[in-house]
Design a protein that fits this description.
The chain has 14 helices and no strands. It is mostly helical. α3 packs antiparallel against α4 (53-65), α3 packs across α5 and α8 packs antiparallel against α9. The two termini are 19 Å apart.
């Protein structure tokens, strides 16, 4: 589970059953965010309407830092506790941003749910199906594999100056927001939407669209990786689980996966470039 992986990354070893239970309970106990913070998040989520959700999350983390009594304590013990608090509260901040954009009231965290399920609950206001929870859990695990990419590097630079953890995370979010990094999954989905639209009337094939993009030297998002030169193993895992969710819950959306597979095949054949994890994430 994501909780097990998170414990491993923070504590440096796999958790025992007791350690995992205590860690899981600590996450659940720290999910609540002060109403004053959530009210601000709700307000800026809808006015102005074009504020990027990553910018709103960055603001929310900055705000909760002022309410964390250990914000300026950089001891190992305090950093561990702050990590748990931040991990627990981020889904609540995300939910407070998404609810008003969907035109519904925000919901409170549910302590009966896992981290992944609670995130989906806060984002949608609906209790997620087990397959949806599994897909989100897998996605969180796969995206935890970030050693020295742009956002992690940014956070490490900030932390190396003896700044505080909240500042480091805010900086990481700022780097992650860009479409050449974390925003690539959104950009990949936008690209597929463009292909779907341009090929819907049969006047253009997907292959023709791709060759036009090659000729225009268009940046095709969700492909290539600085480390995984021969293919990002995470991409296949997330595609498999996303497709399982699609087949069980929303079979009418399988067309997106069919299109994605065709685009992926053309990229591999024509450019010898593999998809990275952001490509299936957009569809999933």
């Amino acid at each position: 589970s994501f909780e097990e992986v998170a414990f491993l990354l923070l504590a440096g070893h796999k958790p025992s059953a007791t350690e995992l239970a205590e860690f899981d309970q600590a996450l659940k106990d720290n999910r609540n965010v002060e109403a004053s913070v959530l009210d601000v998040i709700e307000r800026i989520a809808v006015e102005p309407a074009d504020v990027h959700p990553m910018s709103i999350l960055r603001t929310g983390i900055s705000m909760v830092s002022h309410l964390d009594p250990e914000c300026e304590d950089n001891s190992t013990e305090a950093e561990y506790r702050k990590s748990i608090r931040l991990m627990a509260k981020i889904p609540t901040l995300i939910g407070a941003c998404q609810a008003p954009r969907d035109g519904r009231a925000r919901v409170a965290p549910d302590s009966s749910l896992s981290h992944a399920a609670n995130l989906l609950w806060l984002m949608t206001g609906k209790k997620p199906e087990s397959i949806a929870t599994k897909v989100m859990d897998v996605s969180l695990i796969l995206y935890a594999e970030h050693d020295f990419n742009a956002s992690t590097f940014t956070s490490r630079v900030i932390a190396s100056t003896n700044s505080d953890m909240h500042s480091a995370v805010c900086g990481g979010i700022g780097a992650l927001k860009g479409n050449l990094h974390g925003g690539a999954n959104e950009a990949a989905m936008d690209m597929l939407a463009d292909i779907m639209k341009d090929t819907s009337d049969s006047s253009m094939t997907v292959e023709q669209w791709m060759h036009r993009a090659f000729d225009e030297k268009r940046k095709l998002m969700g492909f290539g990786h600085r480390v995984y030169k021969n293919g990002d193993h995470r991409a296949g895992i997330l595609r498999e689980w996303g497709l399982k969710y699609c087949e069980e819950v929303e079979p009418e959306k399988k067309a997106w996966f069919d299109l994605g597979d065709e685009v992926q095949g053309i990229m591999l054949r024509e450019k010898d470039i593999h998809p990275n994890v952001d490509f299936p994430c957009g569809m999933t």
